[in-house]
Amino acid sequence: VILLKGCVQPAMMPSIDSATSVILNALGIQSMVVQESGCCGAVKFHLNDHAGGLAQMKTNIDAWYSLLQSGEAEALVMNASGCGVTVREYAHHFENDKEYAAKAKMVSDKTLDIGEFITRQNADGLARLGTRVKAAIEQQRIPGTIAFHPPCTLQHGQQIKGVIENVLTTLGFKLTPVADSHLCCGSAGTYSVLQPELSKELKKRKLANLMAGKPQAIASANIGCLGHLESDATVDVRHWVEWVAQAV
């Protein structure tokens, strides 16, 4: 499978990509990054640079298309839901482009969040992961009780609801209840930079709801949410794949 090269995540939290590769390897799946690819285009779109965003999208389509078409790569696996929702919209952005319409559609159709991808794998592989996670929890190498924050780009943008929560509970984590889990944490791409005061209020409310169940840690599925929440959190905040990879 192909992993996104990305722009923010490799600089801020490179451990997320490493953790994703560890989990995929444990399931017998090889992952690769295509060096010609880059930013998904989301940031430029957030800042109304649509031409710049489309140019970045074309660069990625050119880098990935032949690998997907030939079957050398089976899927694009996303571990940042903000990027995932953007790549899934490539087909929409290029639907009237004669050169890129079909290519963009293939890229979008082959894009899966890491949580989705794992659930489609052999059940025995997931069971083996669960055995190692449960052992790590018992040995107190990783937290066993977690509050999960589903990013807006995951649950509203990609319409992926309950999938990662199910993966986590299947693997052996206990998830604490979180009120208003459908609401934004305040990160929202560049929103936290352009609207800092409103963003801070959203973050304060979100952290209060996440901590209400007294979790040992907070997990999420998007670099923007993670960076935003950890700045004021009183417990460890990480991408959920990092806890699983640590167990492995």
What's the gist of this structure?
With 248 residues, the protein is α/β, with parallel strands linked by helices. It contains 15 helices and 8 strands.
Structural key phrases:
248 residues, alpha/beta, Rossmann fold, four-stranded parallel β-sheet, 10% strand
Protein topology:
Blueprint lengths: L1 E2 L4 H5 L2 H12 L5 E2 L8 H5 L3 H21 L5 E3 L2 H8 L1 H4 L7 H9 L1 E3 H6 L3 H16 L6 E4 L3 H6 L5 H9 L2 E2 L15 H4 L1 H16 L5 E4 L2 H8 L5 E4 H8 L1
Parallel strand pairs: 1-2, 1-3, 3-4, 5-6, 5-7, 7-8
Helix pairs in contact: 2-15, 4-7, 9-15
Number of domains: 2
Straight-line N-to-C gap: 20 Å
Number of strands: 8
- The side-by-side strand order for the widest beta sheet comes to 2-1-3-4
Mean of pLDDT = 91
Describe the structure.
There is one protein chain. The protein is of the alpha/beta class and 248 residues long. It has two domains: 2-115, no CATH class; 133-247, Rossmann fold (3-Layer(aba) Sandwich), CATH 3.40.50. Helices cover 55% and strands 10% of the residues. The chain contains 15 helices and eight strands. The strands form two sheets. Strands 2-1-3-4 form a four-stranded parallel sheet. The longest helix is centred in the first third of the chain and has 21 residues, at 50-70.
